[in-house]
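In this section we walk through a basic example: taking a raw amino acid sequence and producing a predicted 3D structure, encoded as discrete structure tokens. The instruction is simple. Fold the sequence below.
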Amino acid sequence: MKSCWKKRELTFLTLYALLFYIIIIRRSLQISHDYHHKASGLRPGWLADQLNDASDAQWRNFRGNLPVLTAVFGIFAFVAHLLRVYCQLKARGMAVVWLLISLIYLTYLHGACIIFILSIASANFLIVKLFARTKYFSSVLWVFNLFFLIYNRIHGGYSFSSFGQHWAYLDNFRGTFRWHICFNFVILRMISFGYDYHWADHSSHFDQKKHIQRCHICKAGKVCYLHLQEKSVPNDKFSFSIYLCYLVYAPLYISGPVISFNAFASQLDMPQNNYSVRDVSWYGFRWLFSLFLMELMTHLLYYNAFAISGLWKQLSPMDVFIIGYGVLNFMWLKFFLIWRYFRLWSLICGIEAPENMPKCINNCYNLESFWKNWHASFNKWLVRYMYIPLGGSQRKLLNVWVIFSFVAIWHDLEWKLLSWAWLTCLFFVPEMILKSLANTFQAESAFGEFIFRELSAVAGAVTITCLMVANLVGYVIGPSGINWFISSFLQKEGLPVLGGMFMTFYVGTKLMFHIDDAKKRRHQQ
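The resulting token sequence is shown next.
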């Protein structure tokens, strides 16, 4: 009876979802057709004489440089593999190879500004070596790195002339890419190196035997990322050459994914074997298919162009919802493609980094799940180097404020990002309270289980709505648009849209429950 009811529910939910996307896509195409002349950032495209949405600078630069990047990384991978095989190089040897390759890459990207990167990195190395065995280590490491994170942004990466006029000529050789933007990732790596070195002499809480019993990757005779991250490398791996190689490793330098020092250094000795040549080829093919989907989206649906043009102010609440939803999906696919591209090259070169987008944005119904699956490698970094040192789950309600404030500052010094961070924290608190209450609740009957599932679906719908609002404020309308947003959706025309949006997210959450149930059944077989 229960199984029959669930099948009927799944049929209804699937039909609703199909109808929802048909309506969204049809209306999106209509908006793009009617308002494209008012949008900025559209350029001639290659698909059926359609304009192409090139309004996002990050995507535009990545897409434009894709052929060059592919050629460069192809040469890098070939040279590194050739030297590893014929010279039989291990960790130190490969560190030198990748350090030289990466420094050539950085010289093209940043020109003379590479001096700033190497100077700050060298100072961090000395601080770690001097203070790692003292009780002041964490404070010194964080103060040093936070200082440069903020100071670099305030001064826009510095000018050589500020150090004296005899250095001013170097300002003519600043490369093609702003160094202080990429340096945010270097800061994460410097902190990772510091803590991994600091913890190297401490007894680890990581239970290797218990982990192998539970991990399907380690059970198969391979080594998963968590095992690589938690198992400390020998002291000789904490050398200056391996440290610098880790900071500037070419495939992951520009945008990650973020990898811990332990995981990186251990794979210099033994290249990853979790992905066979066939697996990597399939991974690359899926990436090409995703790129084709992005080309379809930017040629037919101009979500981002409408968002940055401020056109949403002239549209109905329904159309604002569609553009906001479309922008979130555009952002997800953009980062999915960028991060997977660099991870693909890292896999080819023998270093496995965590997957940044393991789940689709449309398959997350709570904030915790969303942040575990959006920039997932950064989430792993935050958990290991911030959340646990701050006290972990014992101080969870306080920790989220510190962590999300850091995430906002790490991205950029903008009020709208801090607004996004604090809104997210506000939405996080009730979810954590409800989740702790739910964990204590045990359904004693089929009716009790039904009620619990329905309440969970309602909570999921509320969470997705809050998540959309937080991201709209952070990336579309800004803090100044909050009053407009509230007044638009709380008027006669906006309330039905708000109700329909909530109903759709409720249906979507229940559909995700069915997907989770199917995954559990598959794992149990």
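Looking at the output, two observations stand out. The first strand starts at residue 42 and ends at 44. The chain is about 70% helix and 0% strand. In the next section we compare this with other chains.
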